[in-house]
Design brief:
Elements (H helix, E strand, L loop, with lengths): L4 E12 L2 E7 L2 E3 L3 E5 L6 H8 L7 E6 L2 E2 L5 H7 L1 E3 L12 H13 L9 H17 L15 H13 L5 E5 L7 H14 L4 E5 L3 H7 L2 E6 L2 E6 L1 H5 L2 H7 L6
Parallel strand pairs: 4-9, 4-10, 7-8, 8-9
Antiparallel strand pairs: 1-2, 1-3, 1-5, 5-6, 10-11
Helix pairs in contact: 3-4, 3-5, 5-6
The structure holds adenosine-5'-triphosphate.
Organism: Pseudochelatococcus contaminans
Keywords: ATP-binding, Nucleotide-binding, Transport
GO molecular function, one term: ATP binding
Length: about 250
């Protein structure tokens, strides 16, 4: 039996001066799954992602989260509902340590004041939870390292930790593996799998082998439209998908 759609779009469309970058997309992301959005360059993945995360406003169509219409909400409003975009929203402060960054994110979730220079004792209360999150993303040994000094892959893991600090029920990941070497790719893929427990994940990702191993469901976009949808076996055996990727793939 199929799970319920937690995030859904209907006829989602955005036009830039008459050009439809996303054209009539209807998506159903099921609760508790890892759902990937893939497609050749220029397919409309980033634009679609920006629509879902409310960084762009659609020309037409609707987006619902848990049955609630979120089409005209702002990123901060959907974050309060539990839909959080990693990387862009979860800014990491380079001058603070990994532990401090997670503490600040926890403080933000609680809505405490930002004047952390005055409230060292208050922040100590978050230490235990922050350490737990650092451990969850494999960064325990880096807790005292300034975020700016972390190696690239570790920095992105820290971004995941600061996002998890907001306790999202749905995590939207924009190319989580971009720019990573093999070792970091494996580590991040494992991390995504781990944090997907009790959560829904939607990710735009170019690394097809990781998409294949992680995703429960994949939507293939091409020229702004949904070309195919299904598990990896289904979409990789679809001649239209193979054709759309020819010449445009960078996995
Ligand atoms: N603000 C904009 N104004 C005009 N055209 C845009 C705008 N944003 C995106 N486009 C166009 O929409 C199309 C889809 O772009 P988008 O970046 O969403 O594709 P993508 O699938 O994410 O590509 P890539 O894999 O290269 O990142 C492209 O042709 C792009 O040039």
């Amino acid at each position: 039996m199929r799970a319920e759609a937690i995030l859904a779009t209907r006829d989602l469309t955005i036009e830039f001066k008459g050009f439809k970058a996303v054209d009539g997309v209807s998506l159903n992301v099921e609760e508790g799954t890892i759902h990937a959005l893939i497609g050749p360059n220029g397919a409309g993945k980033t634009t679609c992602f920006n629509l879902l995360t409310k960084f762009l406003t659609p020309t037409r169509g609707a987006i619902t989260y848990k049955g609630k219409d979120i089409t005209s909400m702002k990123p901060a409003e959907i974050a309060r509902l539990g839909v959080v975009r990693s990387f862009q929203i979860s800014a990491v402060f380079p001058q603070f340590t990994a532990l401090e960054n997670v503490r600040i994110a926890l403080q933000r979730r609680r809505g405490d004041s930002f004047d952390f220079w005055r409230s060292e004792s208050l922040l100590r209360r978050y230490d235990r939870e922050a350490r737990g999150l650092l451990e969850a993303v494999g960064l325990s040994e880096y807790e005292k390292t300034r975020a700016g000094a972390l190696p690239y892959g570790r920095k992105r893991a820290l971004e995941i930790a600061t996002t998890l600090a907001l306790d999202p029920s749905m995590l939207l990941l924009d190319e989580p593996l971009a720019g990573m070497g093999h070792e970091d790719v494996d580590r991040m893929a494992e991390l995504i799998r781990r944090v997907s427990a009790n959560r829904t994940i939607l990710m735009v990702e170019h690394n097809l082998s990781v998409v294949a191993s992680l995703s429960d469901r994949i939507t293939v976009l091409a020229r702004g439209k949904v070309l195919a949808e299904g598990d990896y076996k289904t979409i990789s055996g679809d001649a239209r998908v193979v054709e759309a990727y020819m010449g445009g793939m960078h996995a």
